[in-house]
Batch of 3 targets.
Target 1
Amino acid sequence: MAEFDFDLFVIGGGSGGVRAARMAAQRGAKVGMAESGPMGGTCVNVGCIPKKLYSYAAYYHEAFEESRGFGWQLPGAPTLDWETLKANRAKEITRLNGIYEGLMTGAKVLRLQGHGRLADAHTVEVAHADGQTSRHTCRHILIATGGTPYVPEVAGRELAVTSDDMFDLPQFPKRLVVVGGGYIACEMASIFHGLGAEVTLLYRGEEVLRGFDDEVRAFTASEMRKAGVDIRVRSDVARIEANGSARKVHLQDGHVLDADTVLYATGRKPRTDGLGLDALGVRQEKDGTIWVGEHFATSVPGVFALGDVVGRMELTPVALAEAMALVDHLFGPLPGKAARAMDYDLIPTAVFTHPPIGTVGLSEEKAREKFGAIRVFRSDFKPLKHTLSGSSERTMVKLVVDGASDRVVGLHMVGADAGEIVQGFAVALKCGATKAQFDATIGIHPTSAEEFVTLREIART
């Protein structure tokens, strides 16, 4: 058997790549990794972590307003120090980068700072930051390079920014135009509105958050509009022009919007440039994602891919689970453990809009397609907190039940702490919980979460 420098070489130091490298090394494999940027990938540097930190920051603005109803008197109008927020975020991200580097060091993974490309099915060439190159032979190669924001062809596109830029803008945008209707666009619109910007969100479709439950989409959009985000559907950009340091956004319907910053959040594409995939014959789909079959194997034996670059479910915990399944396949599970297999059913997720969304399982529309006969239970209400806060924000909870088996096949929430609440219920759905079992569960009072176990009236079938 041929000798290789490494049993596994990982290209990409994001969530999936780091987990695969560390767990493979734990099995006794010799592992190398190439990453050209800071460790942690999108999630740590320009995704989940900074987004959630800025979401927390935005909630303080709401809390200052709401506190008056609870008897608090502020000495003056609070103001946001954008530079302080940016600096504190950067400090935390740097700390996390160091933790990820430490994980590689602790696992004895050879960490190379540079851009990796496939020279052949068992060789990675790394272009180092100092201009030098190195070549490494590998029994297995894993591509875990993630994705990058995509901006469509539109006149003046160079005047727009992407989500990667939003956390470190030189000046806080008092007027922000967001183009897009997916979860990143809606999150950024909510967050920067909460931080004090005047936000207009443009989406060319009929309703934002395509792919989510229709009722969740409509309810979230309504709450965002009520809070002050100007959401305009069936609206698209014709061109963007500079207006000094500001921007003029010309819409296809003839309207013109003035903005300090224009954010394009119209999707992401796989980060595959410069990997040498075409020359090697690695099959890619029309959208650029890498095709993978069983056990995340690409069309070239010995080369594997996972995470956002394969485009199955672009979520950090999914990449982590995929990495564990791949390592178990290549190097065997830990002693006493069964080999993991990736299961994409009932994966919970959250959208950190204001109010946030938590969801697990099927939308009402998908459940009807799959099961035919279903029962839908839903409620919307003013949370106890807002009986004094003065806020008009409402919460919605919804259960989708298979009519034949009584299983809860979809659970959705729009409201405070939705992600925290739905994570717990996701365990119940994974265990096959029925509506009868939900009904038999005692609620915790007074909470919004208890609404899920007190829903009795069928909204529709």
Target 2
Amino acid sequence: MSLIPLDPPRPDRRQLLKAGMAAALLPLSALGANTVSTRARIVILGGGAAGMSMANRLATRLSGARITVVEPREQHYYQPGWTMIASGLWDAERTVRANADFRPAGIDWLSQSAVGIDADARRISLADGSTLDYDILVVATGLQLDYDRIDGMSTDLIGSHGIGSVYAGHQAAARTSDAIDAWLASGGGQGLFTMPQTAIKCAGAPIKMTFTTQSRIKSVGNRDDFTLDYFTPSDDMFSQPWSNEFLKERFDRDGIARHHGWHLSAIDPQARQAEFTGRDGRTETRDFDFIHVVPPMSAPDFVKASDLIAQQGPFAGEWLDTDIYTMQHNRYPEVFGIGDVIGAPINKTAASVKAQAPVVEANIAAFLEDRPLPLRHNGYTSCPLITAIGRAMLVEFGYDNDMAFLPSFAFIDPREESWAAWVLKEFMLQPAYYAMLEGRV
């Protein structure tokens, strides 16, 4: 039986919006949190989705604590919207807000970078040469984009020479859309879409960019004049099993060639050539008219240089050594991790942060009171997997039961492409995200 679904019936728009907003704006009080009195020094590294959520939650939960957020940026970026920008659907500025819009009152905000962690001394080194001591550390740094691991690649190239990349920022996403427009205007040619050899945030984004680019080609009306190839080092397309099989069949049906066991290792912008390296070390060079580059990713260098990095196993040397259920560090109990920086089999999405934040909050409160940690993260993550402009699948799953689906909305079937999932992506998830930053969900 084919895995390609038929068009499902569209739900009533008012029903969708009502249900979406109800889920988005569940008040924090519904969690039944008790206030904890403490004089602890709480340091949060990072003021992105994970860090800002924890700042707001802990400012509400802890009475008397000194909470310090270390974050050099003054602007907050809604990164889930960058695929919409690169797909030609959103203006870049729609994804930018001031951090001041979300900062809770009564905390210290250090507008500079952390450059080192001394886990034994419980001390953070800052870019200006000063240090910051902590009793509880929340590592919410996010990850770093390692474009320099692709020989010849630089973010300065995005938008020129047929090179795009959705990950390098909202303006880079806009330049990616421009590069796609230029390719469409050329009338045809070769498009390459890549996946790196490391874990990445929003693992569905490379697939979304492939599908939305195909939609734009079809809107021009000459799909047969364009060749699309997708390169991934994995044997799979996606970590969730059913979705993986669906995507393989869908790519094959749409004539998007799949190349498994290969990653992008070098690029020659002037020649418009890309080098791919296989599992056995062999290399192949491909010409392109457009290429979507997804860089390797890892924890920030100063985290990797610290004792907090995983020492063994699949995350060794690359990701924070965190218990994937309690979010507590495996060797330093006063340290908790959240968001993209942690070593986990899945979870590098904003939806994961939404699920992790109440766990980290409750477990920090319990740790401060010398109680057993009460909550466990089930690995929940979500990907509004865009399959065409105007259609998507809401793929939600977790660690257990072979990554079985964990649907949130009764009217959205995770096995069907639907307008409802698209509307959720385009209109509902951004308000829910901002509510998460404020600690309301």
Target 3
Amino acid sequence: MPTRRGVLRGALAGGALAVTGGALAACGTTGTGSSGPTAKPSCSVPDVSATERTVLFSNWPAYIDEDEKNADVHPTLVAFKAKTGIDVKYTADINDNNDFYGKIRTQLTNCQTIERDIVVFTDWMAAKFIRNGFAQKFSPDKVATFLKNLSPSLKGRQFDPNMEYAAPWQTGLTGIAVNTGVAKEVHTVDELLTRADLKGKVTALTEMRDTMGFMLLSMGKDPANFTTADYDAALDKLKAAVASGQIRKFTGNDYVQDLAKGDIAACIAWSGDVIQLGFDNAKIKLITPDEGMMIWSDNMLIPTTAAHASNAQALIDYYYDPKVAAEVSAYVNYVCPVAGAQEEMQKIDPDLAANQLIFPSAETQSKLHLFMPLTEAQEKEYEGKFQSAIGA
């Protein structure tokens, strides 16, 4: 099943929909309820940044600006080297959170180098990475631009409340997508689950955090702070929508084709998909339901075994310059995590600067919700119940 990340890689300005392989991000994973590491490896790696002017950066495919004539050249990285003298060895080798974590876990546990100074993980895996003591803490004086310009909606996250370990690279939203050529707009989760004209024409996501986040919101519960009883009640609501025939099926990214063709009328969807579909069909819209949208991020982290931590922090801080952030967002079309980048985007592309899926308004930001970090026991319980409910 394609990953969310693989799907949203397709939301490139003027690019084709790209899909990478791998298991869905949320399946069979663990999270954390703590705000920092609880089991630190006894690693002490000398920082050789001053003598080795390099940084080793692993990221997901098609997740950075590319030169029009050579996709292997990234203009913002070229500019970073010109500005700092630091060479970036950039590798797009992360295709799945679990897979990549599995490749580096043993080395990190044994304090062995993974030959990476920055890795990028989605929120729940970033939480696990931090909890297991694999992330180096930032030095505030070296990431001052990050601390200043991180979007207010991303501050105070439960797994990194003091912004010490994880810097969002890009962010995405989960909302309700509607093909208005097939049905009128949908403005609440309850509409999606009960409106007669949508019966059998609705899909939800196989990623637990996204679908259950909406179920919890529809019951007036906060996805960032709920009980097992809340979860079970929300799951019963989902089961009822399945039993009634309202929800046709649960999908990975394959709702994209069905929505474009009009085979489904509405669905729980990811923002990057809808941007891409909207390029070709203006009748396809992502709607912020009255309950709000779910928000998630992919985060830059510095492994404990990184030998160029200072250089890595310089790179992280560089990408929080609004001008640089706008250049990346103009290419990848994700929600930009950097305050001030919208104004810079006006100089690049006014249409993108006005796009709510890239620069949500203050009103939209007030309706964005994170999913609560889970303990290993909660993850096993909640994921098991969800998979049983959706027939996976």
